[in-house]
Every structure is written in structure tokens, then in C-alpha cells.
Records
---
Amino acid sequence: MTDAPGNSPYSLRLSGVTKAFGSIPVIQDVDLDIRAGERHAVIGPNGAGKSTLFNLISGLFPLSGGDIRLHGRSIAGLSPHRINRLGLARSFQISNIFHRMSVFENLRIGVLARHGIRFGLFRPVDRMRRINDETDAILARVGLTARAHDLAGDLTYSEQRALEIGMTLTTGADVILLDEPTAGMSREETARAIDLIRTVSEGKTLLMVEHDMSVVFSLCDRVSVLVYGNILATDTPAAISANRAVQEAYLGEEADI
Amino acid sequence: MRTIIPAAILLIALLAVPPFLGLGWQNALVNLLIASLFALAFNLLSGQAGLLSFGHAAYFGVGAFATLHLMIAVEDGLPFPTPLLPLAGAGAGLAVGLVAGVFATKRSGVYFALVTLAIAELFHSLAPHLQGWFGGESGISAMRMPWGGFVFGSLLEVYYLTLGWVVLSILVLWAYTRTPFGRLTLALRDNEQRVRFLGYDAHAAKVVVFTISAMFSGVAGALLAISNETANYALFSAHVSAQVVLHTFVGGATIFLGPVIGAVVFTLFAYIVSDLTRSWLFYQGLIFVLVMLYAPIGIGGVIRHHLRHWRSIDWSRLAAPYALAGVGGAMIAGGVVFLTECVAILFGEEYAVAMRDAGDTLPPFEMAGMSWDPLGPASWLPPILLLSIGGLCLHRARDRIKPLWDAIEGGAAKEGTR
């Protein structure tokens, strides 16, 4: 439990994480280790606490108990921007972008943060070559180059989801949390999103909430099943889908997936 | 180039014309410039960062009082160049804005607005009791001292000093929008939560925006202090805070120079109309309501909309319905003014006296140099005709303008998807 910061084999370690809203427990004593460089999915029925878990890890909600370590360093109680600067970025279930700014500017805000130009007041941003080149590179990676100068609010749904993923890349975080990145997408769009997530998460640690088992199978190394705020099992996708307890608790009741 | 040439022409006019104007107009221009800067500083917070403050009078007033204190010190022999006096306003605005900003920006939306309102009210209620700082109820006064060959005795000199500071401030505020922090300001307005998850301390960022806005408000207050050579606690009143909100939203909060348009329109309106009628504040409020209802993007927004589609506007077809709308609008305005002035007279004190003298009947009243009988149908026919014909004109004009604009915007949308 007392890994020296920096050389932990785990990107993210949750130990005894607990969250209650008032007297209602939502997350109960969750232990979860995410290995450096793996792609890990959290699945579970609606209301199991998946999004709450993400909000705890990323610092939106304070913990009621337990500890979370990022690269061996405790991040419990830190504010979202501190956690981001330590190398963790997240996307949101509902598109959470800057609607009235251009796609390019949406991404540039994050690139500026990565370079520590947070409160730059003395140089025009359009002349910052390195920043703009880097933004262009991320635009190309998420396939939005042609839409660079359109308002983010005018993008199609799946383009906004791609922009969301792009924004998690901008700050240079090596641990990425994606909250249902393919929700609401057509089969075709989902396939493209999977390809995108696979390439952009190369060399990084990925933790995602996902409903679609086919996405989990094609992307992830390991899966954790969250039911009523408890981790039921953590294993490879194949082992999880063969697990009887999981089938009863979750897969069984939604046999169509 | 398209913006530089008109800006240069405007600047030359602002430099060359005032010496030929009377004192009244020179004074109006000074007030217009100050209101423009104040509105622009306010809109940095309201339009760009999305934080609607209802208490910006606090920073405006603090800037004015700090400048007057510096002017008193100069009177007593402190060697400080008169043209740099607004630095005192900037400093005071910055300091008070920083402290107020730390608290106010902990909240957003309605709560933010209420906290800013409370802070301004705090100043408004404390100032009359603080003799040393704000000079009690009568306020404080100081004289402009000559400096380096300038006497600063004439209003024209004050005008040029004001112009210099306002132009400089506008340029700085414009440059601000192009910096990384200027872009972050817009991002805060759009989605503060996401800003935090991108590694920014959103609260600190909001404090910085608040402080810069308060600083430039302080400069505007300083310029007023220099021009008036006096200030009292009324500068902190909710009326001053409301005025800047009015200017900004009528001008257009989403356009950089929109607040300036609103400040110019309302300052000129006040200067011209307040001499003609005591109901001018009512008309001002009416204009605000109409703009919010029918053109919430503000005057600046309407202008920008036309400029954006300039090439696809067929003026030969649009000019006639626009003229018709103008005529209809003018007739309705005439009817409303007629009724408003009638009401003001009929329910006024003078008329009450006249009524008593006439033995509790309704005597004829005097308006616009003519005598009107309050019970005669001929008195009420003009406003009824003006309102109904004006309404018809506007209705017809709208029916003709709408399809033309639909075609213009439809064409633009098609171009966008190509």
C-alpha cells in the first residue's frame, strides 16, 4: 500500500473507497487496482454507482472514506484541477464542451494548460506557434480537422463525443477516464469510436464506463463489475462473461447485450 | 483594414470636432466616454466571463474617491502629474475588486449577482458615515492642478485627457481578448466545470477577471472624479450599477464594442431628452424592455447580423419594408409619448391645483403649445390613430421583412454546409 510515488506498477489504486450521500451509501468499500498501461472497463447496471466512482476519482465529489492513489500518490481530497495536473483527465457522460467556442479553441484551452500558460495575459494566443501546432495535431488525431473553425455546439453528436475525447488528450494526462464514450451512437459510429479510443489510449492507462459489452470485448484488457456500490468481480472480459455471479447480477437481466 | 479605417475616422472626429462644440456637448462627450469605458469594463465580467454583477458601482465609486484623495494630496503639494491621476482609480478598483472578487466569485449565477449587489450596498450605506474616506453625505471635492504647461482648467483639456485614457483602456481590453487568458475567460462562461477538469483553478481565474474588470471600472470612476472635481456616496447607488447593466445589454453583451454602443445611445438620449421631459427615465426603461423583448442580442448584435449577411442583402427589396417599419415605429413612439406626457400632466401637482380652481371639473390642459380638452374625443384621437396606424405599418412591414431574411439566412446556411 505504501508504494513510492512515481514507480508504482499501478496507475490508480482505490482502497476502501466509500461514498454516501447523506445516509445513503452509493459506493461501499471499493478496492480496485488499475495497472499502468491497461485498458480497464467498469460495467454494471444503472444506478450501480459507476459515474459516482468516476466523480470520486476525478475529484468532483469528496470521498466519505478510503483512499485513492494516482501513480502511488494519494489524491484524496484534492480539487479537480490539481488531480488533472497530476496526470488524470476525464470525459463526461453528457457532452461537456465549450459550446460557443470553436472546436479548435475547445482543444487549445487544454493544450495551454498543459504548457502551464494558464494565466497568460501578455501575448496574443494566435501567435503561440507551438500551442497551435499541438492543437492541430490533436484535431487531426480525433478527426475533426475539417471542423476546426465551427462552433463546438454545431457539431453532430458523435463529433462532440470525439471532441470530448480530444479534450481529455490535450492536457497530456497518462490516465484517462472515459464515461460511456459510445452511449447513444449508431453501430457504425461506435465502431469508429472504438478505433479512435484504441489509438489515442496507446501507451496510456484507460479506465472507462461502458454499457456495450461488444465495446468492452474489443477494447479492454480487464473488466470490473460494479453492483450496488460493490465490486463483484474483476477479470478478463471472457472470464467475466462466463462468471455465474455476474450473469445473475447483471448480464442475465439484460440478456440482449 | 475593414475595422481600422472606420476606427481611424471616428478617432479623428473625436479629436477634431469637440473644440467647435459648446460646453454642454463637451460635457456630454466626457460623460459618454466615461460611460463607454465603464460599460466595457463591466462587460468583461458580464459578457465575456458570464458573471452578471449588479454592484459594479462599488468599483466605479471607489476609483472616483481614491482619485479625489490623490487630487487633495496634489493640492497640498504632492508632485504627481495630473494626467496620471486615473492610476489612483485603477489601483483602488484593483485592490477592492480583488478582495470583493475572492468572495463574490465563490458563487455563480444568481448568488454571484446577489453578493455583488450586497457589496455595493455595503459601500452605499457605509459611505455617508465615513467622514474621512467618503466625506460624509456631502462627499469630497478637490481641484485639478496644472501640470507641465497644461492648466486643466477648461473642459476641453479634461475631454482630451478622458479621451486618451478611454482609448488606451479600450485598446488594452481588446488586446486582452486575444490572450490565452482572454480565451479562458470565454471558456469560463461556457462551461466552468470543464475548465476545472482541464487543470485550471477556475476560482482563481474568476478572481483575476473580476479584478481586471474592477480595475478598469475604477479608471472610469477616476475620470469622472477628474471631470467633476467632486464625488459623494450617490456614486455607490444601485442606480449607477443598474445603468451600466442597461448600457451593456441594450448595446449587446456578446459583441466587444456593444456596451460602448449602449453607453453612447443612452448618454446622448439622457443629454437630449432629459431637457425636454421629466419622463425621460421612463422612456429609457421602455427602450430597455423593448430591446430585451424584440432584439435581445442588443443594438450591436443587430448591426453585426446585418454586416455578416451584407453581401446577400438585396437592399432594393428590403429598403421599402424597413422604411415602413421605421414609419410605423415612429408613429407608435409618437402615440406612446403623447399618452405618457398626458398622464404626467393629468396626474401632476399643477393640474391638481387647476382642477380644484375649476371647481372639481376637468379643465383643458396645455401640451406642446396647444390646449387639449381631457374629455374631448379630439384630444384622444391623435394617439389612437398614431398607435393603430403605426401598429398596422409594423405588422405589414414584419410580414414583408421576415420572408426576405429567411431567404438570406437560408442561403447562408446552405453555403455553410457545402
---
Amino acid sequence: MTSLLLNTLAMAGKAPMESPAWDGFKNLVNALSVPEVSLPLIFFLVFIPMFVFYKWWTKPAVAALLGIVFCIFYFGSMLIDYDYLLIVTKADNVPITIMLVGVGVTLWVAFRRAAINDTALAQGKPLPVEGKDDKVLVWPDLVYTEMLCLILGSIILVVWSILLRAPLESPANPLGPPNPSKAPWYFLGLQEMLVYFDPWMAGVILPGMIVSGLIGMPYFDTNPKGNGYYTIKERPFAIFTWLLGFIILWVVLIIFGTFLRGPNWNFFGPYQYWDSHLSVPLTNINLSDYVWVFGLKQPLPDNPFVREMPGIIFVIFWVCVLPVILAKTIMRKMYNQMGMLRFAYMALHLVIMGMMPLKMVLRWVFTLKYFIYLPEFNLNL
Amino acid sequence: MISSVFDYIRNSQVWNSIFRHGIPRDRRTRVMAVMSNVFLHLHPVAVRKSGIRLSFTWCMGGLTFFLFLAEAITGVLLMFYYRPVPERAFMDIIALRSHVTLGLLREIHRWGAHAMIIAIWLHMMRVFLTGSYKPPREFNWGVGVILLVITMLLSFTGYLLPWDQLAIWAITVGSNMGKATPGFGMQGPLTDFVKIGGIPFVTPRSDAAFILLAGTSVGENALLRFYVLHCIALPLAAAVLIAIHFWRIRKDGGISGPM
């Protein structure tokens, strides 16, 4: 695929330019793409406005313009940078591009229809599409659609398979790990979490809680509205939280893990060469150091539980006390509607999910390594 | 001439024994077409017009099922050419590429697997955004979540089988997480306390990662184990749950719409 693309570009006289004309742009994008800059930018400049202005940006003309800008940026970058071209056209990364486009298009359809429905609901009118109760026969209407999807799916799959060889690297060598060693791309959100958490959290607890949270969702979401049609206004908290998890903490982190993490899991901008000799100083500091050494100006206590008491108190507060505070204050209405058990289940998952952005921000701002550092029990959080 | 041949076939005993209704042209025969066919009768006879619009379902659930079938068919064909032992596995994959007629099998299988993961995520997003997991469909959403996990495990176990660098190191990264399981992995928190009469219950040869890999690292036992999981255990589990998933769609009222 890469060579095919390179040859095509070369024949068109458009081999990836490494000319200095683009250096300013590339350096800017590289600088902006470090997680502590890009994740807040994505959250505040893309994710939040996506909800606030959803009736505006989903208009076909605006959405088309946004799509074109994205495509120019995403695909056009291949023309100006060789390192970026190599990453995006790597065979196993091609599905990520497809996922990205797929998520974008489907989000647009969903938000568009939600905008139309919400406008109708606000005016007290019936839902324009879902509101109609007319039925059609499965044969031919549904069977026809299914067959078209089947044919189209087959064609796309076969063409994709003809154009793109399934990746195969050198034979397995148990003594020679590649650098970086990466899990399959759909798990890279979790591998990216390894930067902030130990494996028992990132690899066991977090995925476990994703599954238990998803399965429990229909039981603790007691909002009877928005059942069977697109809407945002009738269930803003559910949709915001769920999409925050799926879009930011899953899809975006997959992009980070595949495109922007190079040798030794160091961060590299999209237009940066993956230098395996780059050394990044490890300057992260535990909460116990902050409290005892920097705060109280004394050596760390010998007893590990005394030493880690600040972190233990914080984690107990975050997991056990914070849900109670939420239930008494901003989520009082939700608590009354859901009841204790449902609320406890939901809030536990919510605060654990909240721990991910919390730890990320604390890492960026205070270079915090662990809340609790108990290597005596392999228990670091 | 030709039409009379067709008429003869359509009126023959063989044809009528297979299709017990006429050409589905009117309402009665269209209903019959769905009800008298084992595959089509997964559907109800009539559905909401708004529910089957492409902009409502995106057909992602259907595509996921289509990809599952494509994976099953190409997977069976791939099993003819592949031996799950370290000495053979990699060369068998090379042979698939160079010697086998229509050598697209592995490509279709691999890209189909990736496409299936994407389709299942988008399907879930659609079901979530339309609130279709809400009563009475709570249980079916849970079945769907298990199917998501199985699909990702299917893809994960299949990732090892080519036995190249990409394969063993991706699986090493993934299975290292097993070593960190609290209480059950050697490097996991609190594992030191899991003892019976002072004897450690969890050892490097009995922890969670060992159970997954049948070894302390990704080796020939892991290859065999992942092969059996990939070709037998997980697809069977998926097939059973897919049957439940589809059956429950009908029992819970078909494609969702406003209550």
C-alpha cells in the first residue's frame, strides 16, 4: 500500500515534500499534538462545541465543509510529510482511518437527526421520522436493504483485500521484541492508559469496569425518555458521559497509541521522525513525596501505610465519599429518581472513569506518578 | 419458450417442495416468503418504516453479522492450509500468500475482522444514541456487550496465529496484563497474600497469564491454545449468543421506535 501510494505520488510529481516551506506548520502541529495540549484542545474546542452547537454544525453544508477540512488535513498531510505517510499507510493502521471516518459520519447522522427531533419536540410537534407509525412488509423492503448492504459489504471487503496485503512481518523471534511493542490497535486506548496507570488498573480493572458499566447501563439509566429515537436534549447527561468515554477516552486514545507513540512509548508528533534514541527524563513524583518531603519537610515514614496515608485518604474520598457528595448536591434529582443501589453502581463507574482524566491532568500539571505507591504489595494507583 | 420452461420449473414438485408459496408479489405471498423460510423468519413479517431507514440503523448490526459469516467461511478455508505449530505456522501463512489459488483468503479474513470490530462499535453507538437499550431491551443490550467482548477476543486470539513479530509481541503486551490481575497474577497487587497454609496459591506456573498462555511466555502451547479458542470455543460461543441476540430482538418488539 505504502509503495503503491508512493509510486503514484511520484508519478504525479508529488512525492512527499520535505521542503522547509512547511516546517513552520509542521512544528506547530507537532507542538500542539502533545497530549497535555491536544487532549484539552480536543475536549474544549471540539467535544464541548459538538454538543453546544449541534443544531448548527450538523447542517449538511456546514458538516460537509468540516468533513472537507478534516480530509484535507488528514489525507493532505501525506503529501508534505514522509513520516506521517508511513504511519497512516501502515497496513494495520488503515482500519483506524476507516474507523475515524466511520465514527465521524455516523456521529454526524446521529446528531443531525437528534437536532431535527429536538426542534420538533421543542415545538410540541410529533417526531418527523420516528413519530410515524406506518409499517412495511419485511419482504421486499427490509430484505432488499439487507441484500444491498450485503453486496456492498462484499465488494468493499474484496476490493480492500485486493488493494491491501494483510500485514506480515519477520518470523516470530521470542528474543527480539520490536520497539515499540504494541497491542492490536483496538486495545491501544488501554495501552495508552498504561502511561498513567499500572497494568492492574489499565489492563484489568478499567476494561472490567467498562464491560460491567456497559451491561449495567440499561438498569441504572432510569430516564424513560429518548427510547427509540435520536435525541440529545432529553438525555444530555447520558449521551455526554457515554460519548466522552467512547470518543475521547477510547477512539482518541487509540489514535494517540497508534499514530503518536513511538519507540519506548515516547510521544512523537504526527510529522516527527520516530527516533529510538530519544531519551525523555522520568521526573514523575508520588503523592507521598509531595506531602512528606516537599510539604512537611521530613523524610518518608518507615511504615508504608503511614507513608501512603495521604493517597489512601484521597482514593477513599474519591471512590466512597465523592458519590455521596454528588448524591446530596448536583445529582440529588438523579439520586431520588434512581434509588440507592442504582445510583451507587452508576456513581462507582463514573468516579473510576473520572479518575482517568484526573490522573492525566495531575500528571501534566504536577508530574504526579502515583496517589498510592505501595511496591510492597504491588499496589500502585 | 423460456417462460414456459420457467413455468414448468415453478410448477414442478421439486420447486413446490422447497418454496411453499408463489412468487412474492402480493401481500399474502410476501408474508409467506418471510414466514416459511428459516433464515428470513428471524424477521417479523412487518416492521416500522422509520426503523429500517439506513439513516436510523446504519445497517451496522447487519454488517457485523455479515462479517461474522464471512469470517466463518474464510476461516474454515484457512484451516485447510494452516498448522498451529511454531515450526509450520509462519511458512503456512507465506504459502497461503504465494501458492494457494485465489490467495485473498487471509486478506479477507484479516480485514473482515478489523471491519467487524469497527462495525460492532458503530452498532453499539447507534443503539446507545437511539436509547434502544432501554426497557424492554435491557437484557439484549447485555448480550450485545458480551458479544462485543467475544468479538474482540476472537480478533485478539487470531492476531497470534500468523506467528510473526507483530503477532507474538502484540499478544505478549496483551497477556502481560494477565500477570497484573489483582490476587491472581504474579505481579498483581495483593497476590502475596493469597496463600493456603503458608504455601503461595499463585506461582509463576499457575497465575492468570499462565492459564491464558499455557506457559510463562508466548510459545507453542499458547499458539495451540489460541488456535483452539479462535477456531472452536469463541465462534461457538458467539454463534449461540448471536442466536439469542436475534431472537430477543424479535421478542422485545423488533427494531426500536418511540414507545
